[in-house]
Amino acid sequence: MAKILNGMELSKQMRDMVAELCCQFELKYGHTVGLAIIQVGDNPSATSYVKNNLRMCKEVGISAYLHKLPAKTTQEEIIKLIEGLNADETVSGILLQLPLPEGIDVHKVACAIAPTKDVDGLNPYTAGNLYFGYPAFAPCTPSGVLELLKYTKTEFFGKHAVIVGASNIVGKPMSVLLMREQATVTVCNIYTKNLPEICRQADILISAAGKAELITKEYVKPGATVIDVGINFKNKKLVGDVKFDEVSEVAEWITPVPGGVGPMTVTMLMFNTYAAAIEGKESK
Ligand code: NAD
């Protein structure tokens, strides 16, 4: 039976550390670490992420500044708000909560976020630096997955990592982070042929497709580490991309849903925000 990679436990340990660092920051600089969160419109999943982020900020002692804008807000107005936040010294990090309402160009808005405050790695400039291996904030979800993998004491070199899903926010940056660790990486998408066969070659299998229980035990090599990023609802129940019970019979490590990657994502946001605050001070 697979060992459970408990994201709740690891994220709590990391948040305790971030809370201590944020406390020291406040003592040293006389003000708190600050995170500005921008939500445009009322998308229910965005509202739920924002609520969770606000709760975690409170837990670790980060001041959260929520800018909840109506769905009819123009792109120019959002960019103007971001420019103001870029110049605001009380704001260490900026989180642009996705999705944005239709008609708003995410690329143009993300380009407005100062790379020094881009704590979810949305600006293409940040992504470019990450790609080249220069200092940059990596998006929080793949960063959280990397922390979970490091917790298993995985040696990455010589390992084959297969990522199912190639989005800008999960699959692609995940591939870059794993390449930086010298893993051999394959990235699959909806058009990939022979998906089970490719997945069965993986020492590390990461699913971020958003397809309920896509990954069955036929997709998994015995002894693999399986990370489930997916968040799906099946018969009103929250499930991942991985058929947990049967994959647990073959994998060595497995993340549960909920309680795996999700808590790590929000914790990495707290960590990146602290890192942005300290870098902001030390670069002066
Ligand atoms: P997305 O829709 O932007 O991208 C999905 C990717 O998966 C695409 O590249 C697509 O081609 C691929 N894909 C879809 N179906 C596939 C299939 N049957 N076979 C192979 N590839 C397939 O999604 P996203 O924003 O990257 O999110 C993916 C999932 O991860 C969603 O369930 C989302 O809710 C979840 N998510 C979780 C967290 C977290 O913190 N746990 C954070 C972000 C996203």
How many E-type strands? Answer: 11
**Ligand catalogue:** nicotinamide-adenine-dinucleotide
Strand content: 15-25%
Taking the alpha carbons of the first and last residues, their distance comes to 52 Å
Mean pLDDT, to the nearest integer, reads 97
Order of helices and strands: EHEHEHEHHHEHEHEEEEHEH
Uncertain runs are none
- Large-scale geometry: globular
Strand count, sense and barrel status of the largest sheet are: 6 strands, parallel
> What share of residues is helical?
40-55%
Structural class from helices and strands? alpha/beta
Strand order of the largest sheet: 1-11-8-7-5-6
What gyration radius follows from the Cα positions, in whole Å? Answer: 19 Å
Write the layout of secondary structure elements.
Layout: E1 3-4, H1 7-29, E2 34-40, H2 44-60, E3 63-69, H3 75-87, E4 93-96, H4 106-111, H5 124-132, H6 140-151, E5 160-164, H7 171-180, E6 184-188, H8 195-199, E7 204-207, E8 225-228, E9 232-234, E10 237-239, H9 244-248, E11 253-254, H10 261-282
Parallel strand pairs: 1-11, 2-3, 2-4, 5-6, 5-7, 7-8, 8-11
Antiparallel strand pairs: 9-10
Helix pairs in contact: 1-10, 2-10, 6-7, 6-10
The structure holds nicotinamide-adenine-dinucleotide (NAD).
The site of nicotinamide-adenine-dinucleotide (NAD) has 25 residues, from helix 10.
